[in-house]
Amino acid sequence: MRSQPPRLLAATLLAVLTATSLQAAGAAAAADYERVLNGTFDSGAADPWWAGAGVTNRVTGGELCAAVTGGTTNPWDALIGQNGVPFETGQSYTFSFDAHATTAQPITAAAGESVSPYRGIASQQFTLSPTKQRFTFTFTSTLDFPDAGNGQVAFQLGGQAADNTICVDNVSVVGGVKPPGGVNPNPTRKVQVDLVGYVPGLPKRATLVSTATTPQTWTLKNSAGATVATGQSTPKGADATSGDSVHQIDFSSFDTAGTGYTLSVGEDSSFPFDISADPIKKLRYDSLAFFYHQRSGTPIEAQYVGDEYSRPAGHINVAPNQGDNNVPCRADLACGYTLDVRGGWYDAGDHGKYVVNGGIAAWQLLNSYERATRVGDASAFRDGTLAIPEKTNGVPDLLDEARWEVDFLLKMQAPDGMAHHKIHDANWTALPTRPELDDQPRRLSATSTAATLNLAAVAAQASRLWKGIDATYSATLLTAARKAYTAAKANPAKIADPNDGTGGGAYSDSTVSDEFYWAASELYATTGDSAYRTDVTASPHYKAAGLTRAGFYWGGTAPLGDITLALAPNGLPAADVTAIKSAFATVADQHLTAMAGMGYAAPYDNSTDGYVWGSNSAVLNNAQVLALAHDFTGAAKYRDGVFEALHYVLGRNPLSTSYVAGYGDQAMRNAHHRFWANQNDPTLPIAPPGSLSGGPNSALQDPVAQRLLAGCPQQKCWVDDIGAYSVNEVAVNWNSALAWVSGWAAEKSGTTAPKPDCEVGFTAGRWNDGLSAQVKITNTGTTAWTSWKLAFAFPGTQKVTAGWSATWSQTGRDVTATSMPWNGQVQPGKSVHIGFNGSGTGTDPTGFTINGKACKIA
């Protein structure tokens, strides 16, 4: 995820004027502005330097060393370089660098244009020897390339018969009179809206950028240009996070569905948008399609993604891949075994696969399904809803997609029960590099406590969800989860190496008490075992003690345990479960209070670290907190807060940009990704619809962002550039947040939440160790049932011993009752009565579904 690809400097560079003749008389005096990024390679990474065909870049000993394949004809047949270098017409520049070669040979240093017609600015040839030398030449630019433009510097290394290695260091291009960066390159509007749409019946708000201190008149027009509503804005003043002076526009009173609406103030008009629930319902599935695109170890087939995005399988031991079927540990670990770790999802824009990122992503998909079965509508994820190969196997498609990663997590378990932290290339690959063309050796990093607890948590969660689908697989998952949890308790402080960042991110996490709480919560919810219950209730994170506005992420997972304990039936005291649910409402209220004062409302706490890497995922994870607060309380204000978060992500932000590819007239295209790399190779695609950009990052942690965004206000620290990996990468744990929230929002779209079409009444008589229950099922919908299946979960130790008027079954705490031939037909408004006798103790079930849909409790 940290390499910049080539834009070839054409042979025309050989025809440009030499350095001597380019020292034009009378050129304006140059300032000491450095134009090249990462010319010293002190970070250990090559970014944003790229390598052309037949060249492999490596940073070794603080130098960029290029291994060049021999047999090329021309100097420009082998290249290394950097794009986006700003030049100013008529200004003087000094190009200097250190270099040496294994075998003496000439090279050409050049400046020019990175795209057709590949105009040259300057070039000069130097002869390298095995001894490092300093080279310098001066030229005056005849072309003008702004920041993020098509300016380029490159070294032409070809034209030699034999292989060679050329190393460069301290590369510098100094000159010009305009300081690089400081100007946001994204075109913006003064009227900021959700570029996709607003759901009928819900609040509709926009932001006006204006220094006016009095209300401004706004006009809403339909696609034909006719005015359909007008009103006055509300001045809010300076917004520090965005750097804008803003007004709020509320046009909620207009609620007519349609497409192509625009909102105007004076001569300023918004991008077009819809008033419709359709886009969010489509996003529910596009955001999930991201995971099929990211699958490793299987071909991505055109029948599911189209020709543009199809590709062969990556990392299956087909040359040039070295494959994932027998991956050893890093040489310094000497673990003594290899693992078959084929499958899983590529984590982000590179080819690494990480247990801690994959863990939270898989959990979020599984939780989306479990939440829907408990309190929502799981039919949205039934078999056949996603475009994936498993769409006709009888299993809900959301579970199928999650299983692709869950199976990989199982493969990362070492013989001792611990889980390896990650697996990726031995070195960073160039960008672009299609997965099937990656020739890097693959290596396992050390096992870690955090990764092991991720495995334990997700395997236990998945075991619970697969009990009624595949009992054998469920048992396999639970065995792995128990083994991992036991291993983690025996190794409670095995922290991932924070310096293990070559070829893949380190993902070190020095605090794992949150992972212990999460894993114990999942195991307890699945098994009811007293040992796990003890670990849950003894944790400092119990009862949502760690839930704050900062939310949760891969390194802070305690709230995931809280969510499970609040949703999945368990034997905890009812007062404790109520306390967990109340904590979600408390934090949700804090978000809403803060959002009310923002120019661009988003549930995000920037008070400590500003906007961080992956800020959009933080916005959406906090939106999940708001969504659950709505589930737990029914309060509409929390539902509205979720949609405000989506409006921010989809365009109501200071950059007038939808951070979701394919959604809106100005949407992210150029994600940092080795296959979706159209910006650097026109034969490759842009990011597919439903892919989420990481979003603003005020720390500017990559060279491209540092060049382009110096001095940016926090919410404007973003650029749609493939090289800006700290702001524009994609990742599975970011898209899982989008998938959870968009799935929830699709379910809730409309003026009110969907009305249940069933009602269940449950009454039970009890004695010392038993009960007799009567269940009344009512069809409150408008369509007759031809058959029905009731599902619920016991919160305690209850077991069904005998039932009547239905076919009863029980797996763990989960109970189902299926209609008999004589009572399956239930007309609207009619009821059917069933019942059972049971043993054990516990309170009444609190959630019921009929045919997968949540029911009202009578």
TrEMBL record:
Residues 1-24 form the signal peptide. InterPro entries: 6-hairpin_glycosidase_sf (IPR008928), 6hp_glycosidase-like_sf (IPR012341), CBD2 (IPR001919), CBM2/CBM3_carb-bd_dom_sf (IPR008965), CBM2_carb-bd_dom_sf (IPR012291), Cellulase_Ig-like (IPR004197), CenC_carb-bd (IPR003305), Galactose-bd-like_sf (IPR008979). Its EC number is 3.2.1.4. It catalyses: Endohydrolysis of (1->4)-beta-D-glucosidic linkages in cellulose, lichenin and cereal beta-D-glucans. Residues 751-858 form the CBM2 domain. The active site is at residues 720, 729. Keywords: Carbohydrate metabolism, Cellulose degradation, Glycosidase, Hydrolase, Polysaccharide degradation, Signal. One of its GO terms (molecular function) is hydrolase activity. It comes from the Bacteria. Belongs to the glycosyl hydrolase 9 (cellulase E) family. This is Endoglucanase. It comes from Lentzea kristufekii.
